[in-house]
């Protein structure tokens, strides 16, 4: 306003008293200036109102954005807490799975030792049966040697032999039942180990999936620890071993067949000679012929008993050896698989723990 009055004074000073005739022009200019002033004031008021409206709109938008930002911060805080809890849970699961893997490895070593002990026990039982059979044959010979003509009786000798056979069979069945029970326990333990390994593999895959879904993009990309799948070379080696084993079994069966044929021929010749002796003994006195017939029958029973018992023992030993070999192969496969994957699991667990530590540190730093 002061500038306006100064401008008016300058305009008035330009006019002299002699120029009163221009008074009307001056008044008109003053009126025009006043009207311009009013227009400027009105425009200023309108501009101020417009600015206030814009400021109010911006303030409302700022408040809305601030509320959204606070909601986003609270949501991120909750997600960060949940992520920390999930990472702690993952670490606990990793520790639990590592402990289970170590215990499975120890169980594998224990099963291997038990399998070796069973093999040794089987050899000891075979030697024990052989010695017991020899002792029984010796006892029969001593019994027959001590008996005289009046004491010798085919029925009593047959009863004595039957008692010995029952004792051998009972002992053999008991030991066989114990070995079969132990073999079933070994198979059940092997199945439990396989199930534990499958659960460990599935837990590891779920752990990797959870970490990748939670944004841990730096998870080391390694091969997935799926179930054991043998390679072509392993299959060929296993097939060659199986073929070699079957060839050896066929060779042993042929050899045993030849031995049985030779024994059968020998027994047939002996039986023929015994029949000839019996025909000759018909010409002897009655008492001496009875004694000779008893000794011939005793020798025949002993030969049959020896052959049958040995054949049964050999067949049982072969079946038990086959089962033990199968158990050893299963344990060897499990041992190879666990040895090859244990180190990889441990390295992967260390990497995941390091990654979880780095992720937690980065979250604290960002916070």
Automatic annotation (TrEMBL):
<feature type="coiled-coil region">
    <location>
        <begin position="169"/>
        <end position="203"/>
    </location>
</feature>
<dbReference type="InterPro" id="IPR039873">
    <property type="entry name" value="CCDC78"/>
</dbReference>
<dbReference type="GO" id="GO:0005737">
    <property type="term" value="C:cytoplasm"/>
</dbReference>
<feature type="coiled-coil region">
    <location>
        <begin position="23"/>
        <end position="128"/>
    </location>
</feature>
<protein>
    <recommendedName>
        <fullName>Coiled-coil domain-containing protein 78</fullName>
    </recommendedName>
</protein>
<feature type="coiled-coil region">
    <location>
        <begin position="243"/>
        <end position="270"/>
    </location>
</feature>
<keyword id="KW-0175">Coiled coil</keyword>
């Amino acid at each position: 306003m002061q500038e306006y009055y100064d401008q008016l004074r300058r305009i008035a000073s330009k006019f002299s008293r002699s120029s009163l005739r221009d008074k009307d022009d001056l008044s008109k200019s003053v009126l025009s200036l006043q009207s311009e002033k009013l227009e400027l004031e009105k425009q200023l008021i309108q501009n101020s109102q417009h600015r206030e409206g814009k400021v109010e709109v911006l303030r409302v938008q700022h408040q809305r954005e601030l509320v959204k930002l606070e909601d986003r911060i609270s949501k991120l805080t909750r997600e960060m807490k949940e992520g920390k809890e999930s990472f702690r849970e993952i670490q606990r699961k990793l520790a639990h799975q590592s402990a289970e893997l170590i215990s499975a490895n120890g169980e594998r070593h224990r099963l291997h030792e038990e399998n070796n002990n069973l093999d040794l026990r089987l050899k000891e039982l075979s030697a024990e049966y052989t010695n017991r059979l020899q002792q029984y044959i010796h006892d029969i010979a001593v019994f027959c040697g001590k008996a005289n003509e009046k004491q010798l009786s085919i029925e009593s000798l047959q009863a004595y032999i039957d008692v010995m056979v029952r004792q051998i069979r009972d002992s053999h069945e008991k030991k066989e039942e114990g070995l079969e029970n132990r073999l079933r326990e070994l198979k059940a333990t092997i199945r439990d180990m396989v199930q534990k390994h499958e659960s460990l593999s599935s837990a590891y895959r779920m752990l990797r999936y959870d970490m990748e879904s939670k944004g841990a993009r730096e998870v080391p990309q390694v091969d997935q620890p799926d179930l054991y799948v043998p390679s072509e070379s392993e299959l060929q080696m296993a097939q060659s071993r199986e073929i070699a084993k079957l060839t050896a079994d066929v060779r042993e069966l042929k050899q045993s067949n030849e031995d049985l044929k030779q024994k059968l021929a020998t027994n047939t010749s002996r039986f023929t000679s015994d029949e000839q002796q019996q025909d000759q003994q018909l010409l002897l006195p009655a008492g001496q012929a009875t004694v000779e017939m008893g000794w011939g029958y005793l020798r025949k029973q002993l030969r049959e008993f020896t052959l049958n018992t040995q054949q049964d023992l050999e067949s049982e030993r072969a079946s038990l050896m086959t089962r033990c070999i199968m158990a050893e192969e299963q344990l060897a496969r499990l041992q190879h698989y666990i040895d090859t994957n244990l180190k990889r699991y441990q390295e992967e667990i260390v990497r995941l723990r390091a990654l979880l530590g780095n992720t937690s540190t980065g979250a604290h730093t960002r916070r």
